[in-house]
Amino acid sequence: xxxxxxxxxTTANVDLFSDWLESITPNHIEIIETVISSLxxxxxxxxxxxxxxxLWKFNYGSVEVFVQLTGLTxxxxxxxxxxxxKLPAKNEPQLMRALLEMNxxxxxxxxxxxxxxxxxxxxxxxxxxxxxxxxSRSVTVVASIADNNDDDLQAEFSQA
Length: 160
What we know:
- It comes from Neosynechococcus sphagnicola sy1.
- This is YbjN domain-containing protein.
- By secondary structure, the protein is α+β, with helices and mostly antiparallel strands.
- Helices cover 43% and strands 27% of the residues.
- It has a single domain, classed as Yope Regulator, Chain: A (2-Layer Sandwich).
- A six-stranded antiparallel β-sheet has the order 1-2-3-4-6-5.
């Protein structure tokens, strides 16, 4: 089979398609900031931008929620997390069992994990095909689950 070189018309169509695709690609930064502003009732939001990406922090109820973009390519990640309990904790085996049971039935796309000696609620995924509704849902789910569980977990398992 002989491959013909692309015609000028074909190349132009590909360029037009690429331009069109870029124009409909969601601006993740604007979407994240819109979602945060809708959840941040006390206007506590802060953002940091560096070569390593973007990091937002805001208060939701009794928790601090963090949203991070490692960059803006499809391979970069979108991560949302909030701390609910500092470790070490009382009765850690019972705590771990409770967290695993909640991971099964009560966390939707999020999950409990340990980060820097803290129990956190988090969700993370690549930016490839990340939709505005997924961004909104991820931030809302993490913030809500963290806020709904932090007081109970601290009351039962906090050593302080």
